[in-house]
Design brief:
The structure is a single chain. The strands form 2 sheets. The chain has a 7-stranded parallel beta sheet with strand order 3-2-1-4-5-6-7. The two termini are 28 Å apart. The model has no long low-confidence stretch (mean pLDDT 94). 36% of the residues lie in helices and 18% in strands. The chain has 2 domains: 2-160 and 324-352, Glycogen Phosphorylase B (Rossmann fold, 3-Layer(aba) Sandwich); 174-322, Glycogen Phosphorylase B (Rossmann fold), CATH 3.40.50. The protein is α/β, with parallel strands linked by helices. It is globular and about 60 Å long.
């Protein structure tokens, strides 16, 4: 198939550091190319891909201080995709609901993966208005606030099979926290769990500008404890050692997590996960195999002692079964083909009339 992947412009594809959506777009694009599809990636000019790159900005907007209005290049990208739409069998957007108004008024099949939280009340009228725009969820739980949406399927995220692997001879000696420092991610809970279990905790996380005050007031004072080590933001290469040498990953979230990419990154390394039972957690974690979904701090603290009883080879084996990039790409292709068939049938009906 001739497929267009349309990525956000905030980060490169793949991102230089943090960037969950752009990372998934990169993995999906590479797997689609490997499967033999003709893929064009609409993304920032500093993106790296084996597909055909259609650069929509000189570099990732987060890294370009000269761009003061990020909506301007994004608007131009949507127009470029629209003008080129007939070059493709299917358009796959990763821009939330932004494509709905324009692309609902044309005939080339399109799909949008919803990567974020969907429980915000302002989304209700959007999905009421565009109830025929096909969308993909990244967990079944993510769909709950928007039953009126035109759900074309759920596709769990996946990672390249050899991107992260268990480390030979690893001697796990600490708990890990990976991602962002933000109120909903509850790094404070991770610190409290580590202290309560007398277990070292390493924190590899970015602090967005909007969360600086939260970090300074709530988290930074907690970092003085001798068990706690704050590493900061790490890149893809650093994740391997960081996760593979951890006893377990703590994901003590306090929000409806749409998927939780860090959980399967840990599983790829054979590292089990303890996560609070919100959003996608119960779907991603295989209880007692790849980790534990908990409902309280007491349960989380008790679960730490149970981590070492989970065979790390079994954690990796379940990752192989459920969360590879190849499985993700094949799931998307099945949706693409179905939408293309339906569009073809619709066009035939219109022509007959």
């Amino acid at each position: 198939m001739r497929i267009a992947q349309i990525a956000p412009l905030t980060e490169a594809v793949p991102p230089k550091l943090y960037g969950g959506t752009e990372r998934i777009v990169a993995y999906l694009t590479e797997e689609l190319v490997a499967l033999g599809h003709d893929v064009t990636l609409f993304a920032s000019g500093d993106s790296i891909t084996s597909a055909t790159l259609a650069p929509m900005s000189s570099k990732a907007l987060r890294l370009d201080p000269s761009v003061r209005d990020p909506n301007a290049p994004l608007t131009l990208m949507l127009e470029q995709v629209y003008r080129r739409r007939h070059e493709f069998d299917l358009l796959h957007f990763h821009l939330d609901y932004l494509p709905f108004p324009l692309f609902s008024r044309q005939s080339v099949p399109f799909i949008t993966t919803m990567h974020g939280r969907l429980d915000l009340p302002e989304l209700q009228p959007v999905f009421n208005t565009f109830s025929q725009a096909p969308v993909v969820s990244i967990s079944n739980d993510q769909r709950r606030p928007l039953p009126q949406a035109h759900w074309a399927g759920t596709v769990y995220h996946g990672l390249p099979e050899k991107l992260l692997v268990p480390a030979a001879g690893a001697k796990p000696g600490y708990l890990a926290f990976l991602g962002r420092i933000a109120p909903e991610k509850r790094c404070d809970r991770a610190i409290e769990i580590a202290i309560a279990t007398n277990t070292p905790l390493k924190i590899a996380a970015k602090v967005d500008r909007v969360d600086v005050d939260y970090f300074e007031s709530k988290i930074k004072p907690m970092l003085a404890h001798p068990l706690i080590e704050f590493i900061g933001e790490i890149n893809e290469q650093q994740k391997q050692d960081f996760l593979a040498n951890a006893i377990g990953l703590l994901t003590p979230i306090d929000w409806p997590e749409p998927f939780g990419l860090v959980m399967i990154e840990a599983m790829a390394c054979g590292t089990p996960v303890i996560a609070f039972r919100h959003g996608s957690v119960a779907e991603v974690i295989d209880e007692g195999v790849t980790g534990f979904a908990v409902d309280s701090m007491a349960e989380a603290i008790a679960a730490v002692a149970r981590l070492k009883a989970l065979p790390r080879a079994a954690v990796r084996a379940r990752f192989n079964e459920r969360f590879t990039g190849r499985r993700m790409a094949e799931d998307y292709v099945a949706i693409y083909e179905r939408l293309a068939r339906e569009a073809g049938q619709a066009n035939l009906r219109v022509a007959a009339e």
